[in-house]
Amino acid sequence: MNKYTNGFSFYASICFAIAAMYELYLFLFGLKYGFYFSTLMFFIAEMGLAVSLFLRKKIPLMASAGLISVLQVVGLISSATGEYAHFSLPAFLALLSYVSLAATVFLSLKERSVVSKLWFISGSVYFVELLYSFVSSFSNNSFKARALVWFVEVIFALGLIFTGLWIKGEYNLLNCANTKNEPHTNIATVPGKRDILGNADKIKEYKALLDAGIITQEEYETKKKQLLG
Question: Is the Cβ–Cβ distance between 39 and 71 less than 8 Å?
Answer without folding.
Answer: no
